[in-house]
Amino acid sequence: MGRLRQKGKAGAAKAYVTRSAAIKRLQCSLADFRRLCIIKGIFPREPRHRKRANKGSSAPASFYYAKDIAYLAHEPILKKLREHKAFAKKLARALGRGEWSSAKSLEDNKPVYRLDHIIKERYPSFIDAIRDIDDALCMIFLFASLPSNDRISTSLVENCSRLAAEWQLYVMRTRSLRKVFLSIKGVYYQAEVMDQPITWLVPYQFTQNIPSDVDVRVMLTFLELYQTLLGFVFFKLYTEIDLVYPPPLDLDKQDSGAGIGAFALEERNRDDMLSSVLSASTGQSNGKRVSSKAVRQAIKALAESSVTAEELENDVPSRDAESEHQDEMFVLRPSASNPGDAADLSTLHSFSSFPQSHVTNLFEPYTFFLSRETSRPIFEFIVRCFGGRIGWSSTTGSGSPYDETDDSITHVILDRPLNQRSDATGAELNRMRRRKYVQPQWIVDCINSGRLLLEEPYSQGKTLPPHLSPFSGREGAQELRAGITGDSAMDDMMEKNETSEEDEPDGDKSDSERSADKALMATMEASHSDPGAMRGVELQAEAVGVDYGTFEKKLAKTQKKGTKVGEGVNGVEDMNKMMLSNKQRKLYEKVRYSERKRQAENAKLEERRKELRKVQKRERKPT
Amino acid sequence: MASHVANRKRKPTAKEQLDASDVESFPGGSLDSLSSDEEEDRLLHESDKSDSDSVDAFPEIDTDSDSDTEGGDDVDDVDEGSSANDEEFPGSEDEAQDIEGASSENDLHIFPKAKTVVSDITGQPKKVYPEIEPDYDSDSSTEDAPNRIGNIPLHWYDDLPHVGYDIDGTKVLKPARGDELDKFLKTVDDPSAWTSAFDKNTQMDKPLTAEELDIIRRLEALENPDSNYDPYHPTVEWFTGKGKEEIMPLSAAPEPKRRWIPSKWEKQKVMKIVRAIRQGRILPSKPKATSSIPQFYAIWNDEPSSHAPPPLTAPKLRLPTHSESYNPPEEHLPTEKEQKEWEATDKEDRERDYLPQKYSALRLVPAYGQFIQERFSRQLDLYLAPRIQRAKLNIDPNSLIPKLPSPNTLRPFPNYKSLSFPHARGRVRCASISPDGAWVVSADEEGAVCLWEVIVGREVKRWSLNEKVGAVEWCPRMDASFFVVGTEEKLYFFMPPNLPPAIRLATKALLIPSALSSTPATPSLVKWVNFPHEPAPESPHLSVDLPASSGLIRQIAWHRKGDYFATVCGHHPCPTLITTTASGGGQGAVWIHQVSRRHSQAPFKKIKGSVQLVLFHPSRPHFFVATQRYVRIYNLAEQKLLKMLTPGIRWISSMDVHPSGDHLIVGGYDRKLCWFDLELSEKPYKILRYHSRAIRSLHFHPSYPLFVSSSDDGSIQVFHARVYSDLLTDPLIVPLKILRGHDVREGLGVLQVRWVPKQPWLVSTGADSTVAVWCH
């Protein structure tokens, strides 16, 4: 006989801990526990047997891994939280007693925790962090647009807007924006950083207020973590492209509403760069001598870094120079003494410099001007991400590189109904003729389709074509194409077919003809599989006196029927289904369920589309 | 010691004296009471407690004053005499004084004073009391008789005219109490009435004494009820205070040095801090600004400390679809009905959290009201929702369907309906095909039995029995040709017309032998009835009468040799009308008949359950009996049960055995079909459920690897069933074809299916009173 096993000493009862037990074990308050869980990324688990995990009780409870809780118990932040509790007591006491000086010194020595180690723990490598910044970006952009109040401090909002601007600057600089979608919830952006798609949602520019049913404490705790995370991520991203982090902020510009223009991207210190380049090259030559090429490069890099930040951002030649410089490095590297390393590096390098399939210089040749009713932060960001130059009227903020009268402007983005102005001067008319006036959706649709679309359907006052989501996969892409090119041709084709089919059953055919037709059909049906028989049928048809066009049509029809017969294969499958065991049948039904649901949804949409098309046509016809 | 004894002796007397004082019978006493009121009060007070108090607590009164006040009394003389004695005997002074005190305090001379005389015998002084003279004063009869009921709740006497009993046992009557008016007048008249209280014991008002009133007053004033208590008593200093100071120290040790020299260790500690401040290790006032700004650095430059996989990342949010666009294609916009439905559902139950909307221009798009809520709910999901890594089943559902050979490769099997033979009316319950496969005999519920050709459907002959026909079956013999029709309680043997003469003769010899074998010795319940040698063409050649009320013959099963056949009778079971008490259901339902001997016997004396079907094994002397739920296999030769199969069907409707004899299929009214491998197990090898209604009939083809099932849903399902002779390969069952063509009437579809013996053709009878032939 084995040893008696005591209940609750092993298995699920030991592996799981309820929340209240966890709090008791950690000796902290529920609020502190929540804060810890958020910061450490610990979440409840679903045990396979709730009752077993709860030691026989079936009362509702949320379970955590006992190991997670043990992990929390060693957390330095927990200690800091306890210290903070003591501090709060001391402070309240000092304030209550009116001991202002000791209160002040307490306040000065308030325990503060840092989250650096948490970031390192939760994201052991940089790529892990990059994969998980979607939510962080959403929150940062949301809080950047919130008004500050007693719960949300001004410094927090400022920090969020600074982080948001830094991210946008990075995306613009590396031109990594891929997709944009204007939805009813806000603007979805998708960028590709280190081959990871990063999607974030930015609300439209309206004043948001935090509703009462939302726990701000939770949001602020998340925000605390996200700010730190993004700080480290941006630091790494900026330093990888040799920029200074944090980018210096021009306060004057910010006060005048320059938005992201208030930040200046700055190359890293030239001395640093020189030394790094030198060290890299010497490292490659195994410290024998400093190669002349390396020196030349260093000098070149110095020359580049002296270009101002603004130029760096906007000018394409600098990018060209960069790529030249990269090419040269590419030439240099194989000459290094340890070929294995160099080969590795060079392949890496070539990967990064390889022109991606996505077009990132879509708007490079064009110069845009934003009309004052359009949202500047959205379109400034988008256009600059794709290499375009953009200006705006001074009413929407300072920092516009040119004003409306500039002759280089090729496109004006405007979002107002068409109204004829009669008092336009000759110069204005001239300008208007040279420029193209488009609605904002054009920009976004161009980006999503990866090419420049015709401006005509998007011009001022036109009813816009539907704006489709670029995230809907392959099927979505097809629809997108159809929607944009206008599938009227296809429509017409279909309609013709329909009408011809409707017209076909004429009453003037004689019975004999009909019977002949029927016989023909029967033979067709029988022989549509092999070409030899088909030819025979054709001849027969000629003999009967059916002209080629009608023959073709009938052929198509019978083939359709044939496919229906082909469903007989499906029928066999259906019959084979009866040989499934009960378990397998259930699985089969489960798998088929979602498929069918999706199909039904698509079919519904398709049907509605057809109906709408018919209605449109009917409306068009009388006119 | 002696004094104590004396005191104890004296106690009751003191009480009596008190009582006496109440009466005030003694003038001297009254005098005394007048003179020393205060003393008397104290006495009263003390005497109440005298039971518990020691006598020592009695106040001491000096006898002199007493003697002063009183004069010329003889008892006093005695007293004086005694005091004189006191002087003589200083040892007994106390006790004498006590006695005197006691006597003087009462001043009632009820009890005469004792004389102390020196005993002649012991030589010790002793007290001698004078004799009590029983006179008027000594009696206590003048006292009020106290109520002697004892410690009894007085409310027991509430309804009685008396209140207790006196010493003689006579009732002490309640004193008359006046009415309310009297009471009022009393209060008016008597000024002390308001300070009197009702005494229950005596049932009359008694005025409260001054002390009692004083106690009441004190209680009302929240004072201590004891009048002697002095709250302002000065403290009595016992150990401290003036003149009691401690002069000498406790220890003679000199005062230590540390009391007046600064601490060395403290100095060292302070100097440590001072040095730290000087060296800049401790900043006395830290600048705050540097600590609050987070410093970022290259945190990911060094290798991760552990190579454990990173924590499970949260799933990303769903990406937006077309319907979320500010300008979606119009088909995505909800109809009014959908919109209402969306608004009516709860927030948690909604399939999507937004309603698609269309705006003609971007400037018209408003702020999204749920933005912050959605962010918040996402965060709640991140830290409150349990996360599971679930392996998503990404398989093609079609891969689950077993790969079976195509039906086209398994031809021939019946494919289409070649002809249908109509019956006049009534459901066609049964049909049978002759062993040579040329003729079909079918019978309906109206009693019409039709004989027709399989190939062309030409009717050759028709018999009308005017009875409900339950079963019809050809004899499997090739050398004779006849069939048996089972009706209610009767079996008829018919011979088809136009037989070849040889067969005709053989059949006749079988059915109407010229020399009948002797009638069986034991009288049987079953009667075999002969018809004349040349019967009318309409009439049967032979009939068997089953015992009365055995019900309709439902099934006839021939043994392969064609001599024996078994019948099952009983009413047609209908699962909806469960009347299992049908007479045929039980043991009397099964009969085995032998044609050559014209003998019938019931094989089972007793059988559990109602028998539905029976079958002969095609090669062995085994007999299958299907009851409602189980199939039992008996060995007829050894007369014992071999096996009991449990198909798990609620009600078995049909059963057939494979021609090899190793496999059995059983169908049930609950739509299940079970395939048994008889050599394997009592449990089914395969259970199929594909008909949508009850299975009615099953049949294995005698030569082709086919079997068929028919159902109340009007369909016939043809299967390919290949059985391998090696034991390792499982039988192969391939569904081949679903034949539809029979109508469903009153919930009944295809009632019986039978294979044509030498062709892959099928004959099916339906409730729509047609018989169909299906050809390949």
TrEMBL record, chain A:
Q: Which SUPFAM superfamilies match?
A: BRCT domain
Q: Where is this region: Disordered?
A: 495-515, 590-623
Q: Where is the composition biased (Basic and acidic residues)?
A: 590-614
Q: Which PROSITE patterns does the record match to this protein? A: BRCT (PS50172)
Q: Where's it found, cell-wise? A: Nucleus, Nucleolus; Nucleus, Nucleoplasm
User: Which keywords does UniProt give here?
Assistant: Nucleus, Ribosome biogenesis, rRNA processing
Q: Which Pfam families match?
A: BRCT, Pescadillo_N
Q: From the UniProt record, give one GO term of the biological process aspect.
A: maturation of 5.8S rRNA from tricistronic rRNA transcript (SSU-rRNA, 5.8S rRNA, LSU-rRNA)
A GO MF term:
ribonucleoprotein complex binding
Give an example GO cellular component term for this record: preribosome, large subunit precursor
Where does the protein principally reside? nucleus
| BRCT domain boundaries | 358-460
Task: Check the record and name the InterPro entries matching this protein.
Answer: BRCT_dom, BRCT_dom_sf, PES
Question: Can the keyword rRNA-binding be found in this entry's annotation?
Answer: no
Highest taxon in the source lineage = Eukaryota
Family listed: Belongs to the pescadillo family.
The record's section on HAMAP family has: Pescadillo (MF_03028)
Subunit architecture: Component of the NOP7 complex, composed of ERB1, NOP7 and YTM1. Within the NOP7 complex ERB1 appears to interact directly with NOP7 and YTM1. The NOP7 complex also associates with the 66S pre-ribosome.
Name the job this protein performs.
Component of the NOP7 complex, which is required for maturation of the 25S and 5.8S ribosomal RNAs and formation of the 60S ribosome.
Question: What PANTHER family does this protein's entry cite?
Answer: PESCADILLO - RELATED, PESCADILLO HOMOLOG
- The name under which this protein is listed is Pescadillo homolog
- Per the UniProt record, the source organism is Multifurca ochricompacta
TrEMBL record, chain B:
Q: Please give a single GO biological process term from the UniProt record.
A: maturation of 5.8S rRNA from tricistronic rRNA transcript (SSU-rRNA, 5.8S rRNA, LSU-rRNA)
Q: Where is the BOP1 N-terminal domain?
A: 157-414
Q: Where is the composition biased (Acidic residues)?
A: 59-98, 132-142
State if Electron transport is listed as a keyword: no
Matching entries from InterPro entries are given as: BOP1/Erb1, BOP1_N_dom, WD40/YVTN_repeat-like_dom_sf, WD40_repeat_dom_sf, WD40_rpt
Where is the protein found, in the record's own terms? Nucleus, Nucleolus; Nucleus, Nucleoplasm
Molecular function terms from GO: ribonucleoprotein complex binding
Q: How does it assemble?
A: Component of the NOP7 complex, composed of ERB1, NOP7 and YTM1. Within the NOP7 complex ERB1 appears to interact directly with NOP7 and YTM1. The NOP7 complex also associates with the 66S pre-ribosome.
Q: What is this protein called?
A: Ribosome biogenesis protein ERB1
The organism is Multifurca ochricompacta
Identify the taxonomic lineage of the organism of origin: Eukaryota, Fungi, Dikarya, Basidiomycota, Agaricomycotina
Corresponding gene?
Answer: ERB1
